[in-house]
Amino acid sequence: xxxxxxxxxxxxxxxxxxxxxxxxxxxxxxxxxxxxxxxxxxxxxxxxxxxxxxxxxxxxxxxxxxxxxxxxxxxxxxxxxxxxxxxxxxxxxxxxxxxxxxxxxxxxxxxxxxxxxxxxxxxxxxxxxxxxxxxxxxxxxxxxxxxxxxxxxxxxxxxxxxxxxxxxxxxxxxxxxxxxxxxxxxxxxxxxxxxxxxxxxxxxxxxxxxxxxxxxxxxxxxxxxxxxxxxxxxxxxxxxxxxxxxxxxxxxxxxxxxxxxxxxxxxxxxxxxxxxxxxxxx
Length: 282
Hints:
The chain is mostly helical. It has eleven helices and no strands.
């Protein structure tokens, strides 16, 4: 994917830029925030947005903008780590199912069916309840649900590629299933994996916010957008901005990721690429 493809898909550019800005906002919090996120100033609690505290202060007098910066970082790294787990385990399983077939494929499909039979949030709540509330356990819980998603994506894409002539030629040349999977199947399904990764990242951010909201995700003194929502729920009618700020941040991040995912899907669609080439030749 090059600049020409990005330029021809404005939604992709918008989504990538918006996602990058949120990610940068979170990364900056590693080194700098307007105020320390652990700084409690009771005399400044419940202040509205102003020149000093741009988004106001919470029930402990902490700066809301600083908390949003740190919470955004937590949301991204939890979601991204869960995606890495899904790709690291699910993609090899999907490739194995497509390459070997038979009992391997049947087992992968059945495990996926069992996982999809339960809502992802229910599975995450069950796992974090058993393992204990923490950001690390939230990553594991969300990552476990991502595994069958990427396994199915990898299997479907690999089965479509496996029918190509160059794959048949590789088999005739004596290449085994592992070599064919690594050299031919995996490179040609990377676009599918990347697009699915953006989707799962947005779902992971929502899942982390939900788990933190019910007390099973990120725990104090760390912060997350879901944790901010939980802390603000008791004063929503009196100080609504305490809920609006983190809630709006979650919505905007998910929208940005979804726009980026849709743009990536369109840009990486081979049919759209051919149409663009033919149009340019004409």
